[in-house]
Amino acid sequence: MRNRLLWSWAKKVMFAIAAICVGTVVWVMASPAASGDVVLLDGFRHVEVASVSDALEQITGKKMYMSHHMQPIFTTKFAGFAVTVRLKKDEGNSDPNALGGMLAAIDGGEPNSVYVMSVEDGADIAGMGGLMGTAMMSRDYAGAVIDGGVRDVAYLRKIGFPVYATGIVPSTSIHHYRFESAGKPVVCDGVTVSPGDVVAADSDGVVVVPREKATEVLATAQQMDFKEHSMYAYIEKLKSIQQAVKQFGRL
């Protein structure tokens, strides 16, 4: 009797797993682009930004990482597709809709977006704060990167929304700035970011991967990660970094 009950339970579990698998296959077949994006971002979330940076320089010959000025408000790791916004300085403006386009851009973002904002001469101006961060989190953004300041940091930390910025300041952009553009390339801390580019961040900083190079860069970064992680045990065993570099061909 017990065996029959176990077999009945096992069949139910197998049927449930089969149904999930079929559903997954149907979803992938129906949404190949979406599925490819999910796999791509999952890959970038599991490699180190340092390896991505090295892979970018090897493949493109360009440095696509942001400087040491770009700092996280808490230790984090994320990857997503860029939603780009630029603010232009407009001191003393009284236009109540001066920043309306910025808010519309946030509300138009898809899950797994990274909000990338360039604030003209914005080192001492908060480009975003708690309200914008809450909106992004509610829309399942991966994070935000601000070439300018950020405020309401205690609240952003409380809700766990990751932000990189060039500084923490209490100021506001209202009456000081005007929305200039969204969905166009921006320069963020010296790096050109186009809409849809992959933005990856971890404790080492932020890198930007051109969308058309993302698959190639990821594959190279994964190889670099594998070699480097394999080297740790090798170095510990032989007590020699020179032998490890000779063996694996990576430093």
Task: Write up this protein.
Residues 1-32 have low confidence and may be disordered. This protein has helices at 2-30, 32-44, 49-60, 100-107, 130-138, 153-159, 214-238, 241-248; strands at 71-72, 78-89, 113-119, 126-128, 143-150, 163-168, 177-182, 186-188, 191-193, 198-202, 205-209. The protein is 44% helix and 24% strand. The protein is elongated. The protein has 251 residues and is α/β, with parallel strands linked by helices. The strands form 2 sheets. Strands 1, 2, 3, 4, 5, 6, 7, 10 and 11 form a 9-stranded mixed beta sheet that branches. Strands 8-9 form a two-stranded antiparallel sheet. It has 2 domains: 2-45 and 216-248, no CATH class; 66-212, Ribonuclease E inhibitor RraA/RraA-like (Glucose Oxidase, domain 1), CATH 3.50.30.
Shape, please?
elongated
CATH A-level architecture of the largest domain:
3-Layer(bba) Sandwich
The class by helix and strand makeup works out as: alpha/beta
Radius of gyration, in angstroms, nearest whole number: 22 Å
**Unreliable segments of 5+ consecutive residues:** 1-32
For the sheet with most strands, the description reads: 9 strands, mixed
Multimeric state: single chain
Count of domain modules: 2
- The helicity comes to 40-55%
State the distance separating the first and last CA atoms.
62 Å
Overall pLDDT: 87
